[in-house]
Amino acid sequence: MAHQTTVNHGQIDEQKLHGFLHQIAGDLAACSAGFMTNLGHKLGLYRAMTGAGPITSQELAKRTQCHERYTREWLNSQAAGGYVEYLPATQQYYLPPEQALVLADENGPCFFPPALEVSASMWFDEDKILHAFKNGAGIPWGAHNGRLFCGVAAFFRSGYAANLVQNWLPSLEGVCEKLQQGGKVADIGCGYGHSTLIMAKAFPNAKFYGFDTHEESIAAARANAEAEGLTNRVEFHVTSGKEVPDLQFDLVCFFDCLHDLGDPIGAAARARQILAQDGTLMLVEPFANDKVEENLNPVGRIYYSASTALCCAHSLSEEVGLALGAQAGEQRLGAVLRDAGFKHVRRAAETPFNIILEARP
Ligand SMILES: C[S@@+](CC[C@H](N)C(=O)[O-])C[C@H]1O[C@@H](n2cnc3c(N)ncnc32)[C@H](O)[C@@H]1O
């Protein structure tokens, strides 16, 4: 229970106060709007509006077999947020193609709704996180509400599908050429295995191994490999980053997970040991600049928040408990890789959400 206190406000600047209240109103609206967006995704409302042109609430309700009154109220919430346009003369609603790309195209480059599952999981786990702030204990990845795992996997998958084979792997020296001939790839902290499977589909002569400590994620990754018909070239194992077997990999990858580990230096040092002589490490991390003051923007706000409740919490649950945080930045990530024994580290690529480092022994 929070204690009631009387706060000495000091001199209040009315203009600043109103500016902040305006921001808070927007943030509060975004919290509820996130829930509305998830409803729209799960009920197929955005999908039904995609390419439909202006549509009435009656037509949309009929197409999606939803109740009209709920649908109309939801449409008004969408119009108030600018997600759809409202045409008062005909009382119709229109989903522009740009919004459809972000809200309805599950295989597109910027599909957004799964990220909301991550926020939902944090609310479910509020008690655990409150407790952890007080006692400093970690919260293991697997102890979170199940929405986290599929939300993270689906959110990151869009970025990987749009960039991994097209931009990130080609930005590494000689890696694509090697994988076209054959070779072995380790994907450490692979989660549901989307990154592993995207690479496996692009390089049919190579073998792929995904490792993660979370049993439920590895089970999902195996099911995904089965569904894609890739089990002859892709294996998934419940294994920690520091215990990955030495198969002399040509490429070892960490996708959005090195900062989550309690001992990222130890895991990177193991990666160095299990690389073939001419092998490469690819580190994909959330985009961040080096200084806090350079990350004070919406992407930083998303990542610092997730990092508080999820990334630092998991890292603190493992040995060493370095808690790098999701906004470590290139300098600190480079230092981790150098401490692990990599001599050559460089930024190979970036997107608004990711930074990609190449490391070689
Ligand atoms: C943010 S998720 C990223 C998952 C996946 N790479 C993706 O991009 O969707 C972090 C992952 O790291 C895994 N992980 C945490 N600690 C680990 C460790 N010590 N060794 C291997 N995996 C670990 C978690 O179980 C989780 O699946």
Give a quick precis of the structure:
The protein has 14 helices and nine strands.
CATH hierarchy, class of the largest domain:
Alpha Beta
Whole-number mean pLDDT: 96
CATH superfamily of the largest domain: Vaccinia Virus protein VP39
Strand content: 15-25%
Q: Tell how many strands the DSSP assignment holds.
A: 9
Structural summary, described in words:
By secondary structure, the chain is α/β, with parallel strands linked by helices. The protein folds into 2 domains: 15-103, Winged helix-like DNA-binding domain superfamily/Winged helix DNA-binding domain (Arc Repressor Mutant, subunit A, Orthogonal Bundle); 114-360, Vaccinia Virus protein VP39 (Rossmann fold, 3-Layer(aba) Sandwich). The protein has helices spanning 14-42, 45-49, 57-64, 68-80, 97-103, 114-124, 126-135, 147-168, 175-181, 194-202, 215-228, 264-273, 298-317, 329-339; strands spanning 85-87, 92-94, 184-188, 207-212, 234-238, 249-255, 275-286, 344-350, 354-360. The mean pLDDT is 96. Bound molecules: S-adenosylmethionine. S-adenosylmethionine binds at residues 141, 152-153, 156, 188-191, 195, 211-214, 217, 240-241, 255-257, 260-261, 314, 318.
List key phrases describing it.
7-stranded mixed β-sheet; 15% strand; 361 residues; binds S-adenosylmethionine; 49% helix; 14 helices; globular; Rossmann fold; two-stranded antiparallel sheet; alpha/beta
Helices and strands, with pairings:
Elements: H1 14-42, H2 45-49, H3 57-64, H4 68-80, E1 85-87, E2 92-94, H5 97-103, H6 114-124, H7 126-135, H8 147-168, H9 175-181, E3 184-188, H10 194-202, E4 207-212, H11 215-228, E5 234-238, E6 249-255, H12 264-273, E7 275-286, H13 298-317, H14 329-339, E8 344-350, E9 354-360
Parallel strand pairs: 3-4, 3-6, 4-5, 6-7
Antiparallel strand pairs: 1-2, 7-9, 8-9
Helix pairs in contact: 1-6, 3-4, 6-8, 8-10
The structure holds S-adenosylmethionine.
S-adenosylmethionine binds next to α8 and β4.
